[in-house]
Amino acid sequence: MTFSGDAEFDGVAFSGDARFGGVAFSGDARFGGVAFSGGARFGGAAFSGDAEFDGATFSGDAGFGEVIFSGDARFKGARFEATARLGPLVCGATLVLDGALFSEPTTLEAAACAVTCDRTRWASTATLRFRHAELDLSDAVLEFPLMVTARPTPFPSLVDLLPETLVSGRDPGVRLTSVDGVDAAHLVLHDIDLSACRFAGAVHLDQLRVDGWCTFATTPTGVRWHRLVPRWWSLRSTLAEEHHWRARRLHATAARGWTPPPREDTPALKPAALAALYRQVRKSLEDGKNEPDAADFYYGECEMRRHDTTRSRGERALLTAYWALSGYGLRAGRALAWLLGAMTVTLLALLLWGLPVDDPKPTTTGRQVAVGQEVNLITDTPNPANPTGSWPERITTERFEKALRVVINSVVFRSSGQDLTTAGTYTEMASRLAEPVLLGLAVLAIRSRVKR
What we know:
With 452 residues, the chain is of the alpha/beta class. It has three domains: 2-215, no CATH class; 222-311, no CATH class; 332-359 and 382-450, no CATH class. It has eight helices and 32 strands. Helix 3 crosses helix 4 (313-326) and helix 5 (332-354) runs antiparallel to helix 8. The longest helix is centred in the C-terminal third of the chain and has 29 residues, at 422-450. It is rod-shaped, with a radius of gyration of 35 Å.
């Protein structure tokens, strides 16, 4: 059957099975408040306009396999009481499941441009398999585990009958935009794009399961200039909330590459709240044995703590030093650069002021009073003499070799045994304290990236 205009079935009650398989709706189709006591068979139907099933009750199986929705498919407030599988279907606009109720274990499969599940209630386990979709789970009620996954290949039943022409120009992946108000203890994400997902407002984020190839937003790389001061960002995974915070906080030039919030009225989180989000998501990744990616979220947590003005100046200064020296123990290159710099400074200081002109040799002095009596002799080492020549005269191969030996021993917290001037002694003491710390930070950073 073909409906050339709008088709309205609002308030109709179907006591038995309702079969609309293969029906073509050229206009809008409205099934608002319809009660399907038996099965509702829409397999192979085509909706050229919007399809509205708001408030509909599906007491039996709801068959929407191989259905094409060219416009919106609205199931707002619908009740699915015995639907084991919904789809696979194609929606060229938005699949609206706001306020819907799924009472039994359900598998939902769809290729859609957007899917909204605002206040959708899942009273049993469910699996959502989407393609090309932008998914919003705001305020969804999860009473049992819910897995959201992206299907990398087209659904087999749609390959020949229903090619995904309505959404074929979009990325086949699934992009989650919000889990605000969701109890994440029952949420499992698999192969999902989380680069634009807002985690603020969710509870039990530390129990969220992130499996497969889930991607987060990343920092803009390269050098950004702000008031003649260069800012260089290393690549790391971030939350979308940090992008929003930095885009609002930084100057226009420095903010390039940071994604602003989707709407101007989106509330801006404070660094303390961002640190809490990073801490919870990091624990979730650590529980999943994803230590390398969890390290990026530890970096983000420390960044937010460093920018949190409610913390004491001493703590923020300590975090700033930790960041500058080693990137919170996560940037091995930065720690090694500081280590090489410290070794170079120590080497030059020893060459110029730390090594004496000559190694002092022990001398023996004494006094003989009379023949036949004991002779008292005193052996002493004179103080090292400070070098007095010009700087080019002090930089020789022999002195360089001695200074290098002192520096290398200092890195591993050992004393070289080399005679030094007073300035050289204090230089060696400082290097024996600082350089092993920098070496330890570099090892810690490498360990965080290769930890199993």
